[in-house]
Every structure is written in structure tokens, then in C-alpha cells.
């Protein structure tokens, strides 16, 4: 029985692609032994167990690049204690389980596992979602056999070209399987106006929520809105929206703190345009479902990768990019009106061309061929 260890860390952007690849690998061999080694977090605890991927949680740390007395102490503790302890934990687990390969999705949680695998001479393969790698994948790429990348190889930064294989970003196929009729029932949609889906990311976005709240009274006169706020902002958004929206418009606003896999697929199916950040996971999901979008890159993202992701996608003609300074009430609404009036079909076609729906299939096939 072949044994594969997955690793990654911190967010859904690491866990969901792992699940997509695991599903494709199991289509080829039901007897694979699939496990995950990485940090414990909400996404991994919730979704990996559902997919019957055995989990081993280890200590992990990260390097904070902002300066403060607190960050200096935290970095010292992580670098000299948490990360070495995580390497020791991963080493012990893999020494006794003897996996045939390790697949890393990157993130701070992957570093101890990749280093331990390298010490044990276990082959490592890695995937980079973004245009610019973070520190974890810069380290991991030096210890990896190959680096799968989402964006075109000539545009990628840092990695050696001979080491890269362009695959796109693995996306869960179920996200493209929603239908409008079921979405109408779930979200109580009227479909009397164009439906706008606003995604704050897995943790939500306070600044996106603030701008949306400001424009809601005007926005709901023309559009119906499904708004994923994130858990931390949901109560405030819900309370403030009720106070500021006229009663006859409240039926057009549908806030949710989180959308699970099924709910997200239905929200995608119902929407006429999607507004969100510019993480690679969001971009490739939007491309998969062939919907026009407006991307608002997170300016604080490491190495400015969200801005670079967004503009790479915009080159295809599939989206509009509004940097956060331009994400204002009247400017946004005007752009949204123009997009839905003139650009919908063109952007749908561009999204379909950009999409790489078989990314997880390509990666799974490569890994299985290597094992063979």
C-alpha cells in the first residue's frame, strides 16, 4: 500500500486543494494510505476528517516580518523552540509510518514536515498557489523534486524554471455543481435584480464589510446581495444592516458568516458577479464557474502577492481590479453597473479560457506516476 503525507498550514487555501488532489488520487487507487501532518486549525479539523484523511497535528511557528518587542520575542520562541519541536514531531511520525512521498501545499505549517522529510530522504513535491511565494515555499522549493504552480511559468517569481510545472490551482469540483433553483430556496432569493456575491474570505474582511455597509442602502435598490461576512464581523454587519436598510429592501440582503462547500456552490450558481479578495483559491474558483468578478486585493498580503495575482488574472479580461484605495461607495457601484451592462459575456469567456479545471487531476496523475 502506497503512503502519501500531505502538509500545509494555516488556512482553507492550503487544505481545500489538498482535498481536491486526494479525491483524484483515490479515483486511481482506493487503497492509498493518505494522511496529513500539520498545525491544528478550524479548516483542517473540520474538512480532513470528512475526507477520511488521517491527521497528525504538530507544533509550528512562523516568522513575523513587522517590528515590535512582542514580535521579536514571538519570533525567537518560534524559531528556536516551536519549529524545531515540530520538525522532531514530524520526523518521529514519518520515521515510523515511512511514507513514499510528501506533498506540501505551503504555508508556515508545512516547514517542519518538509525539513523532516528531507532529513529522512522522502521525496517532496510542492504546490505554489500565488504569483510570489511566501517564505515557507521559498524554503520548501529548495528541498522539493518539483514545484507545481498556478500561474504561467514565465510570470512566476523566485523558482527555477526547470523545476516548475504549470497546473493551475486545484479546486473542488463540487463548487461548479450548484443550481439556481436550489440556491433560490436556500438563500430566499427573489431574482428580481442581478445577484452580487460578496466574499470576505474564510476569516472575513472588516474593511470590505465596512464599505459594503456604507453602500447597502443604494446597492439594494439595484442589486440583490449574498454577503459572506466572516464570523468576527457577522453580528455587527447583521445589526447595522437592519438599522440602515429600508424595510422594503431587506428581502434583497442575505448575510452569512460562513458558506460551506454546498452553500458556496449554490451561491456561485446564483450570482451574476462576484466581489472578493485576490487569493489564488478565490481566483481559480471564480474562473472554474465562469463568472465575472471584481477583485479587491489585500494590500498587506505577503510580498504583495494578491495584487500580482489580481493583475495576472485581469490580463485575461476576466475581472476588474479595484485596489483598496479605489474601493469606495460611488466608484464601485459605477464599475459594477458598467460591468453588468457591457462586459458579462466577454468576462465569462475569458474566465473559462483562464480556468484550469483539471489541475488536481494533473497533479494527482504526476504523483501517481512517480509512485509507480
Main attributes?
372 residues, alpha/beta, Rossmann fold, 2 domains, 7-stranded parallel sheet, 6-stranded parallel sheet, 13 helices, 15% strand
Model description:
The chain has two domains: 3-171 and 357-371, Glycogen Phosphorylase B (Rossmann fold, 3-Layer(aba) Sandwich); 174-354, Rossmann fold. Helix content is 47%, strand content 15%. It contains 13 helices and 13 strands. The strands form two sheets. Strands 3-2-1-4-5-6-7 form a seven-stranded parallel beta sheet, with helices on both faces. Strands 10-9-8-11-12-13 form a six-stranded parallel beta sheet, with helices on both faces. Strand 4 (101-104), helix 4 (111-119) and strand 5 (124-128) form a beta-alpha-beta unit.
- Mean pLDDT across all amino acids: 89
Give the strand tally.
13
Major β-sheet profile: 7 strands, parallel
State the separation between the terminal residues, measured CA to CA: 12 Å
Number of helices: 13
Q: Using the coordinates shown, work out and report the CATH topology of the largest domain.
A: Rossmann fold
* Number of individual domains: 2
Superfamily (CATH H level) name of the largest domain: Glycogen Phosphorylase B
**Into which percentage range does the β-strand content fall?**
5-15%
Biggest sheet, spatial arrangement of strands: 3-2-1-4-5-6-7
Structural class: alpha/beta
Percentage of residues assigned to helices: 40-55%
Q: Which CATH class of the largest domain applies here? A: Alpha Beta
Reported CATH architecture of the largest domain:
3-Layer(aba) Sandwich
Low-confidence stretches: none
Order of helix and strand elements from N to C terminus: EHEHEHEHEHEEHEHEHEHEHEHEHH
Amino acid at each position: 500500500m502506497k503512503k502519501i503525507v500531505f502538509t500545509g498550514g494555516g488556512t482553507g487555501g492550503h487544505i481545500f486543494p489538498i482535498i481536491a488532489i486526494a479525491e483524484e488520487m483515490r479515483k486511481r487507487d482506493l487503497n492509498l494510505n493518505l494522511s496529513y501532518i500539520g498545525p491544528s486549525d478550524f479548516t483542517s479539523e473540520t474538512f480532513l476528517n470528512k475526507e477520511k484523511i488521517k491527521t497528525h497535528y504538530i507544533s509550528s511557528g512562523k516568522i513575523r516580518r513587522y517590528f515590535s518587542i512582542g514580535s521579536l520575542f514571538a519570533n525567537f520562541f518560534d524559531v528556536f523552540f516551536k519549529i524545531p519541536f515540530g520538525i522532531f514531531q514530524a520526523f518521529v511520525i514519518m520515521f515510523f509510518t515511512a511514507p513514499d512521498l510528501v506533498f506540501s501545499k505551503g504555508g508556515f505549517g508545512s516547514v517542519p514536515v518538509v525539513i523532516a522529510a528531507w532529513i529522512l530522504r522522502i521525496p517532496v513535491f510542492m504546490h505554489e498557489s500565488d504569483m510570489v511565494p511566501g517564505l515557507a515555499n521559498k524554503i520548501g522549493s529548495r528541498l522539493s523534486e518539483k514545484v507545481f504552480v498556478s500561474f504561467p511559468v514565465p510570470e512566476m517569481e523566485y523558482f527555477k524554471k526547470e523545476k516548475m510545472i504549470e497546473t493551475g490551482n486545484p479546486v473542488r469540483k463540487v463548487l461548479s455543481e450548484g443550481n439556481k433553483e436550489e440556491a433560490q430556496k436556500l438563500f430566499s432569493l427573489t431574482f428580481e435584480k442581478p445577484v452580487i456575491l460578496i466574499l470576505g474570505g474564510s476569516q472575513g474582511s472588516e474593511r470590505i464589510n465596512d464599505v459594503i455597509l456604507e453602500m447597502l442602502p443604494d446597492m439594494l435598490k439595484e442589486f440583490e446581495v449574498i454577503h459572506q461576512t466572516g464570523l468576527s464581523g457577522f453580528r455587527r454587519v447583521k445589526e447595522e444592516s437592519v438599522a440602515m436598510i429600508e424595510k422594503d429592501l431587506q428581502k434583497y440582503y442575505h448575510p452569512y458568516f460562513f458558506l460551506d462547500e454546498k452553500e458556496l456552490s449554490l451561491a456561485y450558481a446564483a450570482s451574476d458577479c462576484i466581489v472578493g479578495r485576490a487569493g489564488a483559491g478565490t481566483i481559480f474558483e471564480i474562473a472554474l464557474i465562469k463568472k465575472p468578478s471584481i477583485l479587491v486585493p489585500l494590500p498587506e498580503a505577503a510580498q504583495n502577492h494578491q495584487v500580482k495575482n489580481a493583475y495576472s488574472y485581469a490580463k485575461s479580461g476576466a475581472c476588474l481590479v479595484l485596489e483598496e484605495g479605489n474601493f469606495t461607495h460611488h466608484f464601485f457601484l459605477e464599475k459594477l453597473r458598467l460591468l453588468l451592462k457591457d462586459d458579462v459575456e466577454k468576462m465569462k469567456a475569458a474566465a473559462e479560457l483562464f480556468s484550469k479545471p483539471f489541475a488536481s487531476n494533473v497533479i494527482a496523475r504526476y504523483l501517481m506516476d512517480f509512485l509507480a
